[in-house]
Design brief:
The complex is a heterodimer of chains A (114) and B (113). With 114 residues, chain A is an all-beta fold. Chain A contains no helices and eleven strands. The relative contact order of chain A is 0.34. Chain B is mainly beta and 113 residues long. In chain B, the strands form two sheets. In chain B, strands 2, 4, 5, 9, 10 and 11 form a six-stranded mixed sheet that branches. A five-stranded antiparallel sheet of chain B has the order 1-3-8-7-6, with no helix packed on it. Classes of the chains: A mainly beta (114), B mainly beta (113).
Chain lengths: 114, 113
């Protein structure tokens, strides 16, 4: 266990549904990240939060909406997704928002959009 | 911005053989290069990293080398075992404060016994 948990582990949703992914870290870290992992592609950074404040949004479509109520919890709200959004969504955390700090990843949520 | 290329995309070796995975990066100011291992059903896990002030680092059967002039770094696994089978990702830092890692596409390593 890395100290980063994600729920649900698997999610199937229709294009008109609204769902949320949850991430929780028990490491006392201050920075949290959402990544998208698709087959044959590099990990794509989606959002970065530092001390609950969003510091980076890598041109992610508005159908993905992040929320960080505190340094330990991170959500990704999903609505009107497209089939190409099907992927593994990974949450990660690091002690500080500096790329030289080790990032700890959760197990991911496998999302299928039908 | 930073771009990381990783090769090969797949690698099959016999148990006991060595495996080498190579990555190149584009931003000469990058200074931190971690390697992650992702097993089936799990998130990536850091296995070794290297900073630009050293050329090589070793941890038991795993070693990483860095050539800053050529802008490439490599992961070496010796005496491979079936449990080494996984997807391996290299990453590099862009030279921008407060930004996260840039990852390669990954290498699927299969170790057959």
């Amino acid at each position: 266990e890395t100290g980063v948990t994600q729920t649900p582990r698997h999610l199937v949703m229709g294009m008109t549904n609204k769902k949320s992914l949850k991430c929780e870290q028990h490491l006392g870290h201050n920075a949290m990240y959402w990544y998208k992992q698709s087959a044959k592609k590099p990990l794509e950074l989606m959002f970065v939060y530092n001390f609950k404040e969003q510091t980076e949004n890598n041109s992610v479509p508005s159908r993905f909406s992040p929320e960080c109520p505190n340094s330990s919890h991170l959500f990704l709200h999903l609505h009107t997704l497209q089939p190409e959004d099907s992927a593994l969504y990974l949450c990660a955390s690091s002690l500080e928002l500096e790329s030289s700090y080790e990032q700890y990843f959760g197990p991911g949520t496998r999302l299928t959009v039908t | 911005g930073e771009n990381v290329e990783q090769h090969p995309s797949t690698l099959s070796v016999q148990e006991g053989d060595s495996a080498v995975i190579k990555c190149t990066y584009s931003d000469s100011a990058s200074n931190y290069f971690p390697w992650y291992k992702q097993e089936l059903g799990k998130g990536p896990q850091l296995i070794i990293d290297i900073r630009s002030n050293v050329g090589e680092k070793k941890d038991q059967r795993i070693a990483v080398t860095l050539n800053k002039t050529a802008k490439h770094f490599s992961l070496h696994i010796t005496e491979t075992q079936p449990e080494d089978s996984a997807v391996y990702f290299c990453a590099a830092t862009p030279n921008q404060a407060g930004t996260a890692l840039i990852f390669g596409k990954g290498t699927t390593l299969s170790v057959s016994s």
